[in-house]
Design goal:
This protein is an alpha/beta fold and about 170 residues long. The protein has one domain: Aminopeptidase, CATH 3.40.630. Helix content is about 30%, strand content about 25%.
């Protein structure tokens, strides 16, 4: 989960209703802007690619939801069912979740995650997983509050910037 520094009026998310729905092509520009506020990098090609991959194909196993308040995107989540990777039976994965910082603590991220979990259950899986940086306490706290805990798998990595570096 990432947070933005700004992004419009929080009034709409706090006082109006927030609707969780599948992403539409018209939402992508707002998602790009929201992500750029959170990360400091505009990644238009990346987000259009994510829309085409998760918002238009195999919608039974791929999910891209947005949280909308008064026609403004205040959050998003992307996930899918992955089959037999790393020798594991099919399970759901959360790839991205983001909520405007002024909409935190209003239940938006929880509602997005629950919408994804509902889709994953309907697709027949019984577990959901994600990856996050071990020192990202905000994200860790959110996922722990949602009942997620350390899994029995670990991530290994190798730095490819220099030959032989780890």
């Amino acid at each position: 989960m990432k947070a933005s520094a700004s992004g419009g009026s929080a009034k709409s998310a706090h006082q109006g209703s927030v609707n969780i729905r599948r992403v539409a092509a018209a939402d992508v520009a707002q998602i790009i802007a929201l992500d750029a506020e959170m990360t400091g990098v505009e990644k238009a090609d990346y987000w259009y690619s994510r829309f085409h991959e998760f918002g238009t194909r195999d919608l039974r196993n791929r999910f891209f939801f947005v949280a909308e308040a008064d026609r403004h995107i205040v959050g998003y989540i992307i996930g899918e069912v992955r089959d037999w990777e790393f020798g594991q039976p099919p399970c759901g994965w959360v790839f991205a979740i983001g909520v405007r910082s002024d909409c935190r603590l209003t239940g938006v991220a929880s509602r997005l995650l629950e919408a994804l979990c509902d889709g994953l259950r309907a697709a027949g899986v019984t577990k959901v997983r994600t990856l996050l940086a071990f020192d990202d306490l905000l994200v860790m706290s959110f996922y722990r509050s949602q009942g997620m805990m350390a899994a029995r798998m670990i991530t290994l990595e190798r730095n490819l910037d220099t030959e032989g570096a780890t």
